[in-house]
Amino acid sequence: MDLLRIGLVGSALLCSLVAGIVLTFASVVMPGIRRLNDHDFLQSFKVMDRVIQDNQPVFMLVWVGSVVVLVVTSALGLWRLDGADRLLLVAATVFYLVGVQLPTATINIPLNNHRQEQDLGSLSDASLHDERTVFEARWVRWNAIRTVFAVLASALLITLAVRLECLP
Fold this sequence. Notes:
With 168 residues, the chain is mainly α. It has helices at 3-33, 38-53, 57-80, 83-117, 125-163.
């Protein structure tokens, strides 16, 4: 198997794992903690996010690795592919970088960082409610968007891998 095909399989795998992470937050984690009171909701999210921010190695390998492998694969693909195959790869790359990574960097991470900076114990019940309302609505909405784009990008990468006979 040549480098492009290896990169394509790696990209499909890593982007699919990221899709699984954001889907899990959308379908299990956020609905689960939604049932908590305002303080406990914010605190539980803060604790989960701290694991990620402490550079949890498997998470970082998957998340950062997905970007690196996809960008390298796309560069190779632009040089070697044409027609529908090139279009599939470009679409997957754009969906993933613009639909998953850009909102992560510009919306979800800043929301997470704000949460990390807060001393929840010093906030009144009304302030906790306001913080949760603003945070939860925006974070959940953008995570749903990331989930859709991550799944689309993964589906396109898998489709391309099958077309190029990288996968049986």
